[in-house]
Design goal:
With 197 residues, this protein is of the alpha+beta class. It has 3 helices and 9 strands.
């Protein structure tokens, strides 16, 4: 005690907290603002008859039918759009009834904002494919208008053109049918410049 007043006992970590408190608070604030920006840049809506983004609809590949609800998971035709600092991403799922049979297609379309990252993303998508075990399950194919393209046994295919990457899942009857889907993707998705949605 000094002069009747207790002496101040500062905690050993108090000095560090004073130095780190403000920068830590600013970091958390900026991170929160960035997260909010990404959340605001996301929307989920029913898939329109005409695409509102760089994706295919089943009618683009010759499948005519009435949109329906999926028998297995009760899913309907939807589009989810997300925007981040690194990319814009469209995730689509469409299902139609064709003479009593369900036909579906799912796509992940990425427009990367950093040049030269398309091949790395395509490689990661093939490694993590749902219906294939590794990149060896994909065969490279030459598609006019695309920088790179791969098809798997009968379900999945990948297309790269510049900073655009398309991962498409469609239950095709043959590899040739998947190649024709990639050709449609090259014409409609990859070669058409989509600025923003």
């Amino acid at each position: 005690m000094k002069g009747g007043l207790p002496t101040e006992h500062s905690q050993p970590g108090g000095m560090y907290w004073q130095r780190l408190g403000r920068p830590l608070f600013l970091f958390i604030l900026i991170s929160g603002m960035l997260a909010m920006g990404q959340w605001v840049g996301r929307y989920n809506h029913e898939m329109p008859a005409e695409p509102d983004g760089p994706y295919l609809v089943l009618s683009d590949i010759g499948v005519k039918g009435e949109r329906t609800q999926s028998f297995i998971k009760n899913r309907t035709s939807r589009v989810v759009f997300e925007q981040s600092l690194l990319s814009r991403h469209w995730n689509t799922y469409e299902v139609v009834d064709v003479n009593g049979s369900e036909v579906w297609m799912q796509q992940d379309i990425y427009h990367l904002k950093r040049e030269g990252t398309g091949l790395r993303l395509a490689d990661a998508l093939m490694k993590n494919a749902l219906f294939n075990d590794s990149t060896e399950d994909f065969t490279p194919v030459d598609i006019a208008g695309l920088d790179h393209a791969w098809i798997s046994r009968r379900l999945e295919c990948v297309a790269v053109k510049g900073e655009h990457v398309c991962f498409l899942t469609y239950p095709a009857y043959s590899r040739e049918e998947l190649i024709s889907v990639l050709q449609a993707a090259a014409e409609k998705i990859i070669t058409r410049p989509w600025r923003s949605t």
